[in-house]
Amino acid sequence: MVSWSEDSGSSEGSHGRYYQYATSGSDDGIVQIPATTDDSEFEGKDYVLCHEHRKRAERLVAFEGIHTGRRFLACAVKDGKNCGLVEWVDPSWPATMKNALSKLWDIYEESKRNRTEDNLMNSFAVHNLTQEKIKLQASYDKLVGDVQALLD
């Protein structure tokens, strides 16, 4: 699980900005960033470089959890070791907004779980109905055969 707290692991960068380093509980060195969405109006800073790879940081907009809608810069390296540099461009949401986002994401996750469970139950029902149809078809074919045998 990635830590996205804004207090720990940050250091003051140039121009008084605070850079954040995400930490990952995984041992493979790849830092998971939150799901993102496109924002064509986010034309942020080109000068921020990833401290390990010396490449431009990628401009992203969070679309997951209590940081939904916040813009940030993250390491652009996709394969291998992602150093996890994160600079939040937008300020942290107020507590009421975080609570609302948390509740909305909980509702979304519950809805997704319920939909998955419904799909599973529907697939069981379809399977059972298909098996019943096969049995009925076999019974019908047998009855047709018996009737034809009586008529012959």
TrEMBL record:
GO molecular function: zinc ion binding
Pfam entry (one): Zn_ribbon_GRF
UniProt keyword annotations, A-Z: Metal-binding, Zinc, Zinc-finger
Keyword match Transport: no
PROSITE patterns linked to this entry: ZF_GRF
Keyword Zinc: yes
Residues of the GRF-type domain: 50-92
Name of the protein this chain belongs to: GRF-type domain-containing protein
